[in-house]
Amino acid sequence: MLLKDKNAVIYGAGGSIGGAVAKEFACEGARVFLAGRTRNPLEAVAADISSASGSAEVAVLDALDEEAVDEHARAMASETGSIDVSFNLITRGDVQGIPLIDMKTDDLLHAVVNGFRSNFITARAAARHMVKQGSGVILVLDSGSANGSPMMGSTGPADAATDTLVRNLAAEIGPRGVRVVGIWTAGLPETFSKEKVAAVDSRFQEEAAFRGLIEGLDQMRMTRRSPRLAEVASTATFLASEKAAAITGTFVNVTSGTFSS
């Protein structure tokens, strides 16, 4: 098992990606701590993990609330003796499909501020414990849109802030045994619904437009197939494990080749 006896906290664990990662971590032997703002989806993920003989605990908290995050990290470290993996997968409130010159300032900044704030708060909380124990892995996820993606609205700037945090934090705490790694992925069809997509990009409110998006996703990739939830979860599990001990301060491209890196 890749994560046997590891303690992992996942923020946004009730979401599609968060739930998939939590289940894969547990399957590989980790004790997972599921954090998020809404109890019911967290409990559903925990029930799935328990039914597969895994170990999961639920905490209702807001990853933008630094006092709540710090207290949860302290409690987790006190109970288990270590925080070995931290992964932030909360939503940021991205707005897409609008040219930057037509965007409202608040729409642009909302995802940047929320994404950077939550990633900083959760990474800092874990890192403070990890540097004391001399080991640990902090994972973050974004779409890689900082590489240059037109009509992605607030997503590109928000991704850029996250990517910079990965590089700088990895350089600072790497000498103390802690790795920081980013995952780039986007457009996972299993996570889509018309309502979710339209909330980010109003161009896809109509059924025909939404169907066109789903059908066109595969053609955007070098492999002509979109990444799957299971593939993202497996990548995260590998990066969190000792088999990836030489990987830090960088980003793994899990977009099926939407862009080269």
UniProtKB/TrEMBL annotation:
<dbReference type="InterPro" id="IPR002347">
    <property type="entry name" value="SDR_fam"/>
</dbReference>
<dbReference type="GO" id="GO:0004316">
    <property type="term" value="F:3-oxoacyl-[acyl-carrier-protein] reductase (NADPH) activity"/>
</dbReference>
<comment type="similarity">
    <text>Belongs to the short-chain dehydrogenases/reductases (SDR) family.</text>
</comment>
<dbReference type="InterPro" id="IPR036291">
    <property type="entry name" value="NAD(P)-bd_dom_sf"/>
</dbReference>
<protein>
    <submittedName>
        <fullName>3-oxoacyl-[acyl-carrier protein] reductase</fullName>
        <ecNumber>1.1.1.100</ecNumber>
    </submittedName>
</protein>
<dbReference type="Pfam" id="PF13561">
    <property type="entry name" value="adh_short_C2"/>
</dbReference>
<keyword id="KW-0560">Oxidoreductase</keyword>
